[in-house]
Design brief:
77% of the residues lie in helices and 0% in strands. The longest helix has 36 residues. The radius of gyration is 20 Å and the shape is elongated. 21% of the residues are buried.
Length: 120
Protein backbone atom coordinates (compact mmCIF):
# COMPACT_ATOMS: atom_id res chain seq x y z
CA UNK A 1 0.00 0.00 0.00
CA UNK A 2 2.82 2.36 0.85
CA UNK A 3 4.25 2.24 -2.67
CA UNK A 4 0.96 3.02 -4.37
CA UNK A 5 0.11 5.83 -1.96
CA UNK A 6 3.59 7.34 -2.26
CA UNK A 7 3.32 7.25 -6.06
CA UNK A 8 0.04 9.16 -5.86
CA UNK A 9 1.60 11.73 -3.55
CA UNK A 10 4.57 12.24 -5.88
CA UNK A 11 2.14 12.84 -8.75
CA UNK A 12 0.33 15.38 -6.59
CA UNK A 13 3.64 17.11 -5.89
CA UNK A 14 3.98 17.91 -9.59
CA UNK A 15 0.31 18.83 -10.05
CA UNK A 16 0.52 21.28 -7.13
CA UNK A 17 3.59 22.87 -8.72
CA UNK A 18 1.84 23.25 -12.07
CA UNK A 19 -1.26 24.63 -10.35
CA UNK A 20 1.01 27.22 -8.72
CA UNK A 21 2.19 28.29 -12.16
CA UNK A 22 -1.41 28.68 -13.31
CA UNK A 23 -2.36 30.57 -10.12
CA UNK A 24 0.40 33.11 -10.79
CA UNK A 25 -1.68 34.43 -13.69
CA UNK A 26 -4.35 35.59 -11.23
CA UNK A 27 -3.79 39.31 -10.67
CA UNK A 28 -5.39 39.23 -7.22
CA UNK A 29 -2.66 36.89 -5.88
CA UNK A 30 0.92 37.85 -5.22
CA UNK A 31 3.74 35.61 -6.37
CA UNK A 32 4.94 35.16 -2.80
CA UNK A 33 1.49 34.07 -1.64
CA UNK A 34 1.12 31.57 -4.47
CA UNK A 35 4.52 29.99 -3.89
CA UNK A 36 4.23 30.00 -0.12
CA UNK A 37 0.96 28.07 -0.27
CA UNK A 38 2.09 25.86 -3.16
CA UNK A 39 5.47 25.22 -1.58
CA UNK A 40 3.94 24.20 1.73
CA UNK A 41 1.52 21.86 -0.04
CA UNK A 42 4.32 20.38 -2.16
CA UNK A 43 6.52 19.87 0.90
CA UNK A 44 3.57 18.32 2.76
CA UNK A 45 3.00 15.83 -0.06
CA UNK A 46 6.66 14.78 0.02
CA UNK A 47 6.83 14.50 3.81
CA UNK A 48 3.61 12.53 3.82
CA UNK A 49 5.33 9.82 1.77
CA UNK A 50 7.47 9.07 4.80
CA UNK A 51 4.69 8.87 7.37
CA UNK A 52 2.15 6.78 5.48
CA UNK A 53 2.61 3.73 7.68
CA UNK A 54 2.38 5.68 10.94
CA UNK A 55 -0.89 6.31 12.75
CA UNK A 56 -2.80 9.12 11.10
CA UNK A 57 -0.76 9.03 7.89
CA UNK A 58 -3.65 8.01 5.68
CA UNK A 59 -5.94 10.58 7.31
CA UNK A 60 -3.40 13.29 6.55
CA UNK A 61 -3.44 12.07 2.97
CA UNK A 62 -7.21 12.51 2.88
CA UNK A 63 -6.76 16.03 4.24
CA UNK A 64 -4.41 16.77 1.34
CA UNK A 65 -6.99 15.42 -1.11
CA UNK A 66 -9.64 17.74 0.34
CA UNK A 67 -7.23 20.67 0.13
CA UNK A 68 -6.51 19.87 -3.52
CA UNK A 69 -10.21 19.86 -4.35
CA UNK A 70 -10.70 23.11 -2.40
CA UNK A 71 -7.88 24.72 -4.38
CA UNK A 72 -10.32 24.68 -7.26
CA UNK A 73 -11.68 27.95 -5.89
CA UNK A 74 -8.38 29.55 -6.97
CA UNK A 75 -7.56 27.40 -10.02
CA UNK A 76 -10.87 25.98 -11.36
CA UNK A 77 -9.19 23.02 -13.09
CA UNK A 78 -8.17 21.76 -9.65
CA UNK A 79 -11.76 20.76 -8.91
CA UNK A 80 -11.37 18.08 -11.57
CA UNK A 81 -7.74 17.21 -10.85
CA UNK A 82 -8.37 17.12 -7.10
CA UNK A 83 -11.27 14.71 -7.64
CA UNK A 84 -9.09 12.54 -9.88
CA UNK A 85 -6.33 12.39 -7.28
CA UNK A 86 -8.85 11.68 -4.51
CA UNK A 87 -9.99 8.71 -6.59
CA UNK A 88 -6.39 7.63 -7.08
CA UNK A 89 -5.79 8.00 -3.34
CA UNK A 90 -8.79 5.78 -2.58
CA UNK A 91 -7.64 3.21 -5.17
CA UNK A 92 -4.09 3.27 -3.77
CA UNK A 93 -5.36 2.49 -0.29
CA UNK A 94 -7.96 -0.07 -1.38
CA UNK A 95 -5.83 -2.03 -3.85
CA UNK A 96 -2.66 -1.53 -1.84
CA UNK A 97 -4.25 -3.32 1.10
CA UNK A 98 -5.27 -6.16 -1.22
CA UNK A 99 -1.71 -6.45 -2.52
CA UNK A 100 -0.33 -6.43 1.04
CA UNK A 101 -2.76 -9.20 2.04
CA UNK A 102 -1.79 -11.28 -0.99
CA UNK A 103 1.91 -10.85 -0.19
CA UNK A 104 1.27 -11.99 3.38
CA UNK A 105 -0.63 -15.06 2.13
CA UNK A 106 2.17 -15.98 -0.27
CA UNK A 107 4.80 -15.54 2.43
CA UNK A 108 2.82 -17.74 4.84
CA UNK A 109 2.34 -20.33 2.13
CA UNK A 110 6.06 -20.35 1.31
CA UNK A 111 6.93 -20.90 4.98
CA UNK A 112 4.40 -23.74 5.27
CA UNK A 113 5.76 -25.69 2.29
CA UNK A 114 8.41 -28.28 3.17
CA UNK A 115 11.88 -27.46 1.94
CA UNK A 116 13.33 -30.03 -0.44
CA UNK A 117 17.08 -30.50 -0.78
CA UNK A 118 18.59 -29.32 -4.06
CA UNK A 119 19.08 -32.02 -6.70
CA UNK A 120 22.73 -32.54 -7.60
Amino acid sequence: MRTLCASTLIGEFFVIGFAGLVAMKDDSLTVSTVWTVSGIAMLFSLLLCGVLTRPGGLQLGWALQIALIASGFVVPHMFFLGAVFAGLWWASIHYGRQVDAAKARFAAQAEAEPQTPAQA
